[in-house]
Design brief:
Rossmann fold; 8 strands; 16 helices; globular
């Protein structure tokens, strides 16, 4: 199957950045956006100022409000919007095509991963997962970025990774869809926690300990879901976890800082905070862990803070008073 044309569905910062990366890799790219005015700006001025400021976009990117046929389909909408977006697309359009999901989150209600939603809505599509340490601004600007692309067929995944690889965007092929998706979803939760520790001025030592214990907790979840713990040593695991939990460019880390300062979720959102996927994913992950009988004290702690049941100071005190055990 040819891999020359790409349709990126979702004209936010991440979708636009992925369109930019695909164009820089030499692909013919269509960016599907919601509004005609946004499409007009991209086509006329090669910018998407609402999401990427004055960043110049590749001249070969064409924007439209209509779904266009393509060899490769990339979904770049928020995790909780994936099913709704797919409901607007004829499943026949996606049949036999590689459909790359780039959102990092678990679906409220169903507890499903993003690639599971794709197969629910378009059973004949071929799902792939893109994840790893990457900020939209870096990708769009052509700064060096390495990510993981996971699929079920090794040869097809490698071919797809090669088609999207450009001078500054390097996808590494992998075969653990489950591990990559779970790592991508959970790292946002730990970023909220690390941000909260920062916001509460609890110190870099506490943040580092939390990051390490989050890694261990993430491994338990990945294995319980049927993924491989070895996935966490790579870009989709340690790489993405480290970036998201330590950088103020991370929306989840920023949101966590506000939580640590004592602000409520409602106040933070009302003040105009950008989408933080971890806020929606946390209660879903907590429910999923309970269904799998996996011990996830950090996820439960973040869930308690988000719901307003506890403060970060109370949570940390509780975690520090847990019975001592051997490190796993």
């Amino acid at each position: 199957m040819p891999l020359e044309t790409v349709s990126v569905i979702g004209g936010g910062a991440w979708g636009t950045a992925l369109a930019q990366a695909a164009a820089m890799a030499g692909r013919s790219v269509t960016l599907v956006v919601r509004h005609g005015s946004q499409a007009d700006e991209i086509n006329r001025h090669h910018t998407n100022t609402r999401f990427l400021d004055a960043q110049t976009l590749h001249a070969s990117i064409s924007a439209t409000i209509d779904i266009q046929p393509a060899d490769i389909v990339i979904l770049a909408v928020p995790a909780q919007a994936t099913r709704m977006m797919l409901s607007e697309i004829d499943p026949a359009y996606l049949a036999g095509r590689p459909v790359i999901v780039s959102a990092k989150g678990l679906e409220t209600g169903t507890l499903e991963r993003q690639s599971q939603i794709v197969l629910d809505m378009a059973p004949d599509a071929v799902p792939y997962v893109l994840s790893g340490p990457s900020f939209a601004a870096d990708v769009a600007a052509g700064r060096p970025t390495a990510v993981t692309l996971a699929g079920d067929d090794a040869s097809a995944t490698s071919a797809l990774a090669a088609a999207l690889a450009g001078p500054s965007f390097r996808p590494y092929a992998a075969d653990d869809r489950i591990g990559v998706e779970i790592a991508g979803a959970l790292k946002n939760i730990y970023a909220l926690a690390c941000g909260a520790v920062e916001g509460a001025n609890l110190g870099a030592s506490a943040r580092s300990a939390l990051l390490a214990r989050g890694y261990s907790e993430m491994a338990r979840m990945v294995v319980a879901m049927g993924g491989s713990a070895s996935t966490l040593t790579g870009l989709a695991g340690l790489g993405d976890l480290t970036l998201t939990c330590t950088s103020t460019q991370s929306r989840n880390y920023q949101f966590g800082i506000a939580l640590g300062q004592g602000r409520t979720v409602q106040d933070i959102i009302a003040a105009g905070a950008k989408l933080a996927e971890g806020v929606s994913t946390t209660p879903v992950a907590a429910e999923l862990a309970r269904s799998l009988a996996v011990d996830v004290p950090l996820i439960d702690a973040v869930n308690a803070v988000l719901s307003g049941r506890d403060t970060i100071q109370t949570i940390v005190a509780g975690l520090m008073s847990r019975p001592l055990k051997r490190e796993d």
